[in-house]
Structures are given as structure tokens and as C-alpha cells.
């Protein structure tokens, strides 16, 4: 029978996770070995459990908590609840992408400010206070955007 089973180290290596992580999943009741050798404590897993681990790792990478994953794998989540949970995770990832895009735009604004500033080229010769104010002026993208919008509005 053991020819059909995989040891904890084999599945850990296959999925690139630690044995400790798999033991945690076992402790949380998410994945249980089909057999534990009483003599040496080796844990053995079936193909079905390997599939469960694959699903667990995929859901975990999508931001699901171990409790949520346990509920899904045990069938404690209805189809409708699962759809809602997946839609909520998708929305959370979309918001995270929007936030990341905004931060990238802010960094681009700072880079543009620094590239176009002659003051920044002479920053080494400035006092600490002068450098701090110059950096504030360059980094405060919100103020720069507001100033640009106000300037455009005044010149229309």
C-alpha cells in the first residue's frame, strides 16, 4: 500500500513548501495523512490529499486564510458562498492593483520632479534643512498635482 503513498518530505519538495508548513496544515485539521507509521512517525499522503494540498496552496496564494480554506475543503462553504468569497478576493486584488498603480504614478512624479530640478543637482552643497525642504518639495506629489491643476485652471 505504501507504494501508492507519498511521504511528507516528498510532497513538501514537490510543492516547494516546508515540512513544518504541512504539519501546520495537519494541526489545523486541513490535511491529514492517511497513515502515520507508529514505529517511526512518518506521515504518508494519498493522491487525493496531494490534490487537497495543491488546492490549499492555490487558495492561500490568492489571499484566503487557513480557516477559509479549511471550510472550502471540508465542504462547509456552499457554492454561492464560495462564489462570493472568490468575487470578494478578486475585488481586493483589484483594489491592491489600483493602489500599486497609484504608487507607481506617484514615484514617476517624484522621478520627473527630481529629473527636472536643477536644485537637486546641487543637493550635496545644501544644508541639511535645505535638503529636507527640497526633498519635501520633490516628494509631495499630492501638492505638485494640486499645484499643476490649479495652475492649469488659472491659465484657462
Write the layout of secondary structure elements.
Layout: E1 6-7, H1 8-15, H2 19-27, E2 35-36, E3 43-45, H3 47-61, H4 66-74, H5 79-116, H6 118-121, H7 128-139, H8 141-155
Antiparallel strand pairs: 1-3, 2-3
How would you describe what is shown here?
- It is a single chain.
- The longest helix is centred in the middle third of the chain and has 38 residues, at 79-116.
- The protein is mainly alpha-helical and 156 residues long.
- Helix 3 (47-61) packs across helix 4.
- A hairpin with a 6-residue loop joins strand 2 (35-36) and strand 3 (43-45).
- It is built from 8 helices and 3 strands; from the N terminus they run βααββαααααα.
- It has helices at 8-15, 19-27, 47-61, 66-74, 79-116, 118-121, 128-139, 141-155, and strands spanning 6-7, 35-36, 43-45.
- 71% of the residues lie in helices and 4% in strands.
- It has a 3-stranded antiparallel beta sheet.
Key terms:
156 residues; mainly alpha
Structural class: mainly alpha
> N-to-C SSE series?
EHHEEHHHHHH
**Count of individual beta strands:** 3
Strand adjacency order, main sheet: 1-3-2
- Number of helical elements: 8
Report the C-alpha radius of gyration, rounded. 27 Å
State the helicity in percent bands.
over 70%
Main sheet overview: 3 strands, antiparallel
Mean pLDDT: 83
Amino acid at each position: 500500500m505504501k507504494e501508492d503513498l507519498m511521504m511528507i518530505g516528498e510532497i513538501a519538495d514537490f510543492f516547494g513548501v516546508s515540512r513544518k508548513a504541512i504539519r501546520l496544515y495537519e494541526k489545523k485539521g486541513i490535511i491529514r495523512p492517511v497513515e502515520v507509521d507508529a514505529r517511526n512517525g512518518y506521515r504518508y499522503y494519498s493522491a487525493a490529499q496531494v490534490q487537497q494540498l495543491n488546492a490549499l496552496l492555490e487558495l492561500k496564494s490568492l489571499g484566503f486564510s487557513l480557516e477559509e480554506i479549511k471550510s472550502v475543503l471540508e465542504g462547509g462553504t456552499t457554492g454561492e458562498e464560495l462564489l462570493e468569497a472568490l468575487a470578494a478576493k478578486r475585488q481586493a486584488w483589484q483594489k491592491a492593483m489600483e493602489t500599486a498603480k497609484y504608487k507607481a504614478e506617484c514615484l514617476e512624479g517624484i522621478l520627473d520632479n527630481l529629473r527636472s530640478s536643477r536644485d537637486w543637482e546641487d543637493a550635496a552643497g545644501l544644508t541639511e534643512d535645505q535638503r529636507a525642504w527640497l526633498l519635501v518639495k520633490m516628494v509631495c506629489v499630492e501638492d505638485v498635482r494640486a499645484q499643476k491643476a490649479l495652475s492649469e485652471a488659472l491659465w484657462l
